[in-house]
Amino acid sequence: MRAGARGRGGRQVGAGRRRRGNRRLGDYRAVRPDRERPGHRLGHQRGRLSSLPPGRGLLRRDRQLRNPPAKGAAVNVDITDARRSFRKNKAVDGVDLQLGPGVFGLLGPNGAGKTSLLRMLATVLPPSSGEIRLLDRDPRGAAARREIRRRLGYLPQNLGYYPSFTVVEFIEYFALLKEMPSAAVPKAVATAVERVDLGVKAKAKLRTLSGGMLRRVGIAQAIVNDPDLLLLDEPTAGLDPEQRVQFRSLMRSLGERATVIVSTHLVEDVGAACGEVALMSDGKIVFRGTPAELTARGEGHGVGDAPLERGYSAVLSAARLSGAQSGAVSS
Ligand SMILES: Nc1ncnc2c1ncn2[C@@H]1O[C@H](COP(=O)(O)OP(=O)(O)O)[C@@H](O)[C@H]1O
Ligand SMILES: [Mg+2]
């Protein structure tokens, strides 16, 4: 994967199951292109709203807001007390998050709620409650949702694909569904293919590709519109070590301008690529900080082979012990 080149265009398509009510909506939908962007953005700098008066909601916000908006700045993700239940199962159980550009790692064990949170951010899963603003817009409005989707890139955890499509056809299809101007599509597709290092397979049919290659095709469709908000659900699954190194470099490059959220349960993926990480457990964010801060949590008592892994396991077991108390955001 190449960090240097840059794709341009729109957004995503759908495969996946469609169910009704509070079930899956189908992971991908047609979206559209647009090049408008907020004038200013936030970095992932830390900051606290220490002047806030006491109160549970405010306190929780105080703990979670590490990048309070600078004057006139826009945030790409701004969610408050987002919740999503599937019957009695609280998949996402009160998450606050405010993010500007940068690479943000979402860690947590299977079932923690990472995919559900990302699906909410991708506008394919409405929250049961809470406030969600994406790219300065409220996704509850149809026009705003459409605008958000034009500027979003989303790699679902399980990306469906059409076996008889070639790599280029597949990515082009997504670009067109994202309503990119057709004149811009060929170059955007070529750039995306190049960025995931699939040039030699550009004309190969998807059915002939390995799992790792298909994952890279999935990454390519997510970045073909040069999104302002990029959501990647387990993007490194199936990639070999060399490809993972390339992927991290691509993330760093994309994160210079866009907000990139990468979910994974592979702790080492976030260490190198992410400026900041959050750890989810039982639907809640139980830690938010830099990879170095997470590593520090594991000193002396974490279980694991690598320092970051020890931090991860230390925070996770503390969260589980305390019953993952609501709003238990640390550091
Ligand atoms: N569409 C769904 N229908 C019912 N339960 C779901 C659905 N999606 C997720 N869940 C449940 O929500 C919880 C969180 O799942 P998920 O968001 O996939 O977590 P993660 O991505 O961290 O593994 C799990 O208990 C899972 O079984
Ligand atoms: Mg998941």
Automatic annotation (TrEMBL):
<dbReference type="InterPro" id="IPR017871">
    <property type="entry name" value="ABC_transporter-like_CS"/>
</dbReference>
<comment type="similarity">
    <text>Belongs to the ABC transporter superfamily.</text>
</comment>
<dbReference type="InterPro" id="IPR027417">
    <property type="entry name" value="P-loop_NTPase"/>
</dbReference>
<dbReference type="Pfam" id="PF00005">
    <property type="entry name" value="ABC_tran"/>
</dbReference>
<keyword id="KW-0813">Transport</keyword>
<feature type="compositionally biased region" description="Basic and acidic residues">
    <location>
        <begin position="24"/>
        <end position="39"/>
    </location>
</feature>
<dbReference type="InterPro" id="IPR003593">
    <property type="entry name" value="AAA+_ATPase"/>
</dbReference>
<feature type="compositionally biased region" description="Low complexity">
    <location>
        <begin position="48"/>
        <end position="57"/>
    </location>
</feature>
<protein>
    <submittedName>
        <fullName>ATP-binding cassette domain-containing protein</fullName>
    </submittedName>
</protein>
<feature type="region of interest" description="Disordered">
    <location>
        <begin position="1"/>
        <end position="73"/>
    </location>
</feature>
<dbReference type="InterPro" id="IPR003439">
    <property type="entry name" value="ABC_transporter-like_ATP-bd"/>
</dbReference>
<feature type="compositionally biased region" description="Gly residues">
    <location>
        <begin position="1"/>
        <end position="13"/>
    </location>
</feature>
<keyword id="KW-0067">ATP-binding</keyword>
<dbReference type="GO" id="GO:0016887">
    <property type="term" value="F:ATP hydrolysis activity"/>
</dbReference>
<feature type="domain" description="ABC transporter">
    <location>
        <begin position="77"/>
        <end position="307"/>
    </location>
</feature>
<dbReference type="GO" id="GO:0005524">
    <property type="term" value="F:ATP binding"/>
</dbReference>
<keyword id="KW-0547">Nucleotide-binding</keyword>
